[in-house]
Amino acid sequence: MKDIIDVTQATESGLFIIGGVDLAAAAEASKRLSQPVLYISGEDTLQKSVELVAHQAGIGISELNTGKLEPDDWDKLITAAEEVGEIALYVDSDSTSVDEIRLAAIEARQNLDIRHIFIGERARSKDLDAIAIETGARIFI
Q: What is the DSSP letter of 122?
């Protein structure tokens, strides 16, 4: 994640191909930048949200899925969920076409002053560089 921070500090706007962009990367960027981030996933993110909380709590997803938790794991999960809830992370799981991504990016920039947009693999499409230029946002794929 340090590479993302360095790039965003050094560049005004554009499209950055960094690989491995997922909900966790977007959440970490929001925390480190202390700025809101939009994550466009193109898929249902409920399971990824659960995995993010489990990771934050230091609990394996298999333990969480099977319910084999230690008594103190519940406190860890509650704390982790509260911490994740404090992150300025906005998730769009519906946008997949260029026009939908463009509209989501414009609205996020205008309404929420979001300057960093992370696009998951299922939502990637052509012309993302044009969206970055038009919105002035940094787009990570």
A: G
Token digits of residue 29: 């960027």
Contact 84, 52 (CB under 8 A): yes
Angle between helices 46-57 and 71-86 (to 10 degrees): 120
How many angstroms separate the CA atoms of 37 and 53, rounded?
17
pLDDT tens by residue, the chain, 141 residues: 445 544 444 345 477 766 678 888 899 889 988 999 999 988 878 888 888 899 889 998 889 888 899 989 999 999 999 999 999 999 988 888 888 888 998 999 899 989 888 888 777 766 777 788 788 888 887
| Domains defined along the chain, listed by start | 13-140 (3.40.50.300)
How far lies 26's CA from each of 8, 14, 36, 56, in Å? 13, 17, 10, 14
Mention every residue, 6+ apart, whose C-beta is less than 8 A from residue 134.
102, 105, 106
3-34: buried (b, 16+ CB within 10 Å) or exposed (e) per residue? Answer: ebeeebeeeeebbbeeeebbbbbbbbbbbebe
pTM: 0.78
